[in-house]
């Protein structure tokens, strides 16, 4: 009898063990399936299938608000891309990095567009019209109006929006570069020079403008901003890539633009601004209030508004006006057809 009972107990143990293994295996399989679905999402490639794209940016809200929103909302992943961000001081440096192959795609402000006209890069996506640039005088140095710039030391960064707005400001005041003493320096040095009093005025962009105003207080006199020149010199900001990269990676360019424009729509909604500001602040290691102060540095349109500007010709006219100003200032010596360096069709295809 004891042998029979022992045998029955062994059978029960074996059955229980087998049942447990079966449930455990089924559970593992179910969990694995959930993990795969969660990681890929409907229509989203797996992480291992994403193509990496290295993107150059500048540490400010205007440069980052769209691309960071695209990363956080996984709009680029939906297009099969993994975006890696690399920080630069200005647009010309970003273009040089693309030429060396260090990065694939980049964001530029208005000043660096002259290099696109000269064939150094192509504009595959419009970003926004900016209002981040300013010429600021130091009242304690005797600069309270444009005409006061004559004979003064002015800090600027050549080849950038800094130089572009300085040229426009001088022209508005009836001055030329020969009437002033230019100190060419990088963006961070401009802030230091202005605060220390080693220059009398400067031409720079946000958030440098905010830092200077905060430090100088009432002595910081804003002489001009982009708004003063909207009619004659639209402040265009764009996404660019090297022509050779575009030729070899047209699919990446289109897919990046698709993700970018979904992010543009997200960024344009007032309810999302605080979240976007927080993401940008995390990326550039600044406090949220400092980044929030930059939120009005551009005209944040939607993808459909962009399509309307392309179809009615107003965007091409804006790029043409920008080029005309570069030619008038001598920064560009040879005219180029806007369509040769601005990829309007790519923009349209991205929002179909």
Strand-residue proportion: 15-25%
- Average of pLDDT: 88
The biggest beta sheet reads: 6 strands, mixed
Residue share in helices?
A: 40-55%
Model regions low in confidence, pLDDT < 50 over at least 5 residues: 1-41
What general outline do the C-alpha atoms trace?
A: globular
Radius of gyration, whole Å:
27 Å
Structural class given helices, strands, pairing? alpha/beta
Overall strand count: 11
Main sheet strand line-up:
2-1-3-10-4-11
Q: What is the assembly state of the chains in this entry?
A: single chain
Keywords:
17% strand, single chain, 6-stranded mixed β-sheet, 51% helix, 352 residues, globular, 16 helices, 5-stranded mixed β-sheet, alpha/beta
Describe this structure in words.
With 352 residues, the chain is an alpha/beta fold. It has 16 helices and eleven strands. It is globular and about 60 Å long. Residues 1-41 have low confidence and may be disordered.
How would you concisely characterize the structure shown here?
The chain is 51% helix and 17% strand.
Sequence-ordered SSE layout with sheet pairings:
Layout: H1 2-40, E1 51-57, H2 61-72, H3 75-78, E2 81-87, H4 91-100, E3 105-108, H5 113-117, E4 122-130, E5 133-138, E6 153-156, H6 161-172, E7 181-184, H7 187-196, E8 201-205, H8 208-216, E9 220-225, E10 236-241, H9 243-248, H10 250-268, H11 273-284, H12 288-292, E11 298-299, H13 303-311, H14 314-329, H15 338-341, H16 344-350
Parallel strand pairs: 1-2, 1-3, 6-7, 6-8
Antiparallel strand pairs: 3-10, 4-10, 4-11, 5-8, 5-9
């Amino acid at each position: 009898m004891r042998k029979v009972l022992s045998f029955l107990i062994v059978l029960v143990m074996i059955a229980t063990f087998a049942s447990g293994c079966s449930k455990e295996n089924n559970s593992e399989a179910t969990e694995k399936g959930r993990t795969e679905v969660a990681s890929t999402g409907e229509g989203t490639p797996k992480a291992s299938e994403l193509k990496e794209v290295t993107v150059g940016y500048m540490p400010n809200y205007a440069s980052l608000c769209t691309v960071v929103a695209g990363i956080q909302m996984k709009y680029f992943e939906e297009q099969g891309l993994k975006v890696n961000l690399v920080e630069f001081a200005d647009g010309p440096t970003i273009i040089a990095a693309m030429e060396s192959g260090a990065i694939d795609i980049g964001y530029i402000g208005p000043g660096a567009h002259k290099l696109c006209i000269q064939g150094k890069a192509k504009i595959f996506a419009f970003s926004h019209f900016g209002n981040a640039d300013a010429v600021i005088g130091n009242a304690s140095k005797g600069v309270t109006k444009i005409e006061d710039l004559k004979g003064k030391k002015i800090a600027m960064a050549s080849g950038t929006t800094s130089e572009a707005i300085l040229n426009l400001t001088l022209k508005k005041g009836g001055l030329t570069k020969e009437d002033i003493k230019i100190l060419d320096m990088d963006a961070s040095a401009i802030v230091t020079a202005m605060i220390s009093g080693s220059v009398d005025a400067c031409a720079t962009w946000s958030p440098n403008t905010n830092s200077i105003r905060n430090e100088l207080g009432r002595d910081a006199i804003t002489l001009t901003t982009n708004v003063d020149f909207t009619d004659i010199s639209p402040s265009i900001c764009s996404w660019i890539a090297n022509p050779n990269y575009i030729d070899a990676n047209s699919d990446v360019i289109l897919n990046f633009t698709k993700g970018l424009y979904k992010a543009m729509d997200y960024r344009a909604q007032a309810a999302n601004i605080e979240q976007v500001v927080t993401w940008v602040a995390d990326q550039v290691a600044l406090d949220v209030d400092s980044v929030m102060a930059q939120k009005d540095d551009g005209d944040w349109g939607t993808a459909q508004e962009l399509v309307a500007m392309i179809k009615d010709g107003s965007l091409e006219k804006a790029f043409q006006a920008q080029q005309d100003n570069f030619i008038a200032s001598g920064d560009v010596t040879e005219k180029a057809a806007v369509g040769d360096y601005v990829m309007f069709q790519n923009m349209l295809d991205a929002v179909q």
